[in-house]
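Fill-in record for DNA polymerase delta/zeta catalytic subunit N-terminal domain-containing protein.
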Amino acid sequence: MSFSTRNKKKANVPSSFEDQLALLQDSEANTERIHQIWARPSVPNINPDHDSIIFQQIEIDDSADPVSKEPIIRMFGITEIGNSVLCYVTGFRPYFYIPAPVGFKENDIPSLQNQIARAIQMDNGLKKPIERIELTLKESIWGYHGNIKSQFLKIIFNEAKALNATRHILYNVVLPFPY
C-alpha cells in the first residue's frame, strides 16, 4: 500500500478534532432542549384575598426599608410549579435572648434598657434602638439541664443594626450593670 492510498483511507475517517466538534454540536442541541424543559411556567392569576402562595424557601436575608428603616426579611423561594418567589416579611422585630443575671427583677428592666440604649447611641447614633425587654422563663439550649427553665431576657429591637451593636456591647464591652 502506498503513502497516497493510506492518506485517502484516512481522509474518510473523521479526525479527533472533528469528533470533538460533532460532540459539541450534539451537546448544544441537548442544551437547547434542556432550556425548553426548564423554562419557567407562566405566573397564574392570584387573588390575594382568597389564594395562598405556598413555596419552598431557598434563601433568606434581612434588610431595612430605605425610608422608615423598618426591618424587612426577604425570603427567596420557588413554588411547586416552578415560579420564583420573593416574599417580603414586614412588621417583624429582631430580637435575641440572653440569660438574666442572678437576682434580676422586672423593675431592673428600665435601667438595663437605658444603659444599653446610651451605649448604642454613643457608638451608632440610633434614636430608639430597643423597643422593649421582656423577662421570660426558657430552657437553655446549652448542655443538659433536665428541662429546668431559667430566667432569660428577650431584647427586642427596632432595627437589625441595633441588635448587632447590642450583641457587640454585651459580649465585648463591659457595661456598668451587675452581670
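KEY FINDING: The CA atoms of residues 163 and 169 lie 10 Å apart.
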